[in-house]
Amino acid sequence: MSLTRRQVTTAALVAVPLAVAATGPATAAASPQGRPRERTLYIAGDSTAAQKYADAAPETGWGMALPFFLRERLAVANHAVNGRSSKSFIDEGRLDVILAAIRPGDLLLIQFGHNDSKVADPTRYTEPWTTYQDYLRQYVDGARARGARPVLATSVERRKFDADGNAVGTHGEYPAAVRALSEEEGVALLDIQALSIALWQRLGVEETKKYFNWTATEQDNTHFNPPGAIAVARMVGAELLRRLVLVRRDVRRLDEVIPESWISWPES
Predict the structure, then answer these.
(1) Chain centroid to CA 194
(2) What is the reported pTM?
(3) pLDDT the model gives residue 67
(4) DSSP 8-state code for residue 15
(5) Which of 22, 141, 157, 180 would you label with 54, given CA atoms 20 to 30 Å apart?
(6) How far apart are the first and last CA of the chain?
(7) How far apart (Å, rounded) are the C-alpha atoms in residues 155 and 57?
(8) DSSP codes of every residue in 96-157
(9) pLDDT, tens digit (0-9, with 9 covering 90-100), for 203-240
């Protein structure tokens, strides 16, 4: 589901009971009528995943396209917000909002790193091997304490090429820190940084412009347009299946063309 600007900044009022963390593929808890209830996949992240609105079109977060690859009974609650780091997201109370709503069997997909590297901004900066991992653990522990399953994702890569046309990484040690934390904590890892840089390499310097927010007035090598958001969301869906976070009945359309017209930008 698409969250409005107001919804992503409103604190939840009701906390949920604590429960034992899920360790295998996430399964739905039963409703009072004995039927499996709908599960929710929550996204905690930055502008690359976030819901965009009409004033930002055609900029598109990959979280906007993820529902196209998931079955209807697995809803997406996209709490990603422009400009946030693993630290500032928590300091602003945004993780608390998610943890107040998340329920046993739900998923929490965590992708930060783009803004954690901003050394000049103490409200967002984290150091890869210390504070960055410490903040990410708060997401992992919070989800597990509520019976939900955390999933870590490395940051999707920017569009950057060297003089020889080779795609170049821009995230320093942050992806490696996420990989190490996933191993240490036994958390499923979606290595979107590695997958996306490999895709940009295959596409090349000119073709990748069709996936990023390149317009007549802006040459944005960080944020996506609809084709780019769809491509990254497809990676996320495929990796959720490959890493056994989801099972085949949870996903759809992984091999199908998704029309750009399916993307929409709410007014607010």
Answers:
(1) 15
(2) 0.87
(3) 98
(4) P
(5) 157
(6) 14
(7) 22
(8) HHHHHH--TT-EEEEE--TTTT-TT-TTT---IIIIIHHHHHHHHHHHHHBT-EEEEEPPPP
(9) 999 999 999 999 888 899 999 999 999 999 999 999 99
